[in-house]
Amino acid sequence: MEPVIEIVEARLHAPTVADEIVASISDTLAEKDRCSLVLSGGSTPAAIYRNLSRPPRVAEIEWDKIALYWGDERWVAKDNNLSNYHMVDETLLHNLSDPLPQCFSVDTSLESAEAGALDYERVISAEEGVAAGEYPKFDIVLLGVGEDGHFASVFPHSSHLAADPFAQPAPICFAAENPDDGTRRVSLSPAAILSAQRIFVLVKGSGKSEIVRKVLEGGEFTPDIPASILHFARGRLRWFIDSEAAQKLAQFRG
Ligand code: 6PG
Fold first, then answer.
1. CA proximity to 128, closest of 188, 53, 201
2. Using one digit for the tens of pLDDT, what is the confidence trace for 166-196?
């Protein structure tokens, strides 16, 4: 399915995305009684999560019908400032009051990232009713993109990147290593992410303008740029790019 590219004025990026998340949750809950929302880590979504945790939006979401997951997690304790769980707790969870969403986060107390990936795959399969060999169909997945084109913890030349992510059986989760600093991670696999009903790719800042141009104007998949695989999304794929990150796009230059 062709991606929808939304270019948003930088100062309006967080509220615009927050409104779209509220609308998508509402559309999902009009069809069924539960909405699975996979959260991105990194810094971009923090302002979006804060918007969701405050009036008016906080009252527009039926939090007790939301199942929260993490698209990836750093292999650190949950109270570590590097933890994606910690970032979500600071910007969203601790501002919420009863009834709270269900939170299914990666158990980073286990002995290794490999054990964490296996455990998280078991949790997701049980909670989302995933049959053996199938992938979860998350209702909404939020993704950020790194300057190297990684998403979640799918880094360049990951062994989990393939020209067709659905050609071979793939795990739902895997243990990864950030090539920049060697830190261990747990990540959803490309196939698990691309099976979602809706994917929101959240990109802001001039530092991302070159990778945005390469991904959206570069065409074919290349393992050099993991986000070049996102067009295999089986559901709706929407890019929310702020005016800073869009500045090298031909369509934006006019
Ligand atoms: C993480 C994220 C990662 C992030 C990108 C973009 O754990 O860091 O899941 O994939 O989304 O690196 O990060 P920024 O939003 O900080 O640019």
1. 188
2. 999 999 999 999 999 999 999 999 999 999 9
Q: Which residues line ligand 1 (CB under 6 A)?
A: 40-44, 71-72, 84, 144-146, 150-152
User: What is the spatial distance between Cα 38 and Cα 138, in angstroms, rounded to a whole number?
Assistant: 7
| Closest atom of ligand 1 to CA, residue 45 | 15
**Ligand 1 center–CA 88 separation, angstroms:** 13
Give the long-range contacts of residues 54-60, CB within 8 A, separation 24 or more. 54/95, 57/18, 57/19, 57/22, 58/95, 58/96, 60/22, 60/26
Atom of ligand 1 nearest to the CA of 73: 7
Residues 188-233: tens digit of each pLDDT: 999 999 999 999 999 999 999 999 999 999 888 999 999 999 999 9
Q: How far, in Å, from the CA of 12 to the mean position of ligand 1?
A: 20
- Give residue 219's pLDDT: 80
Nearest Cα to 191, choosing from 211, 169, 222?
169
Cα–Cα–Cα angle for 119, 122, 126, rounded to 5 degrees: 145
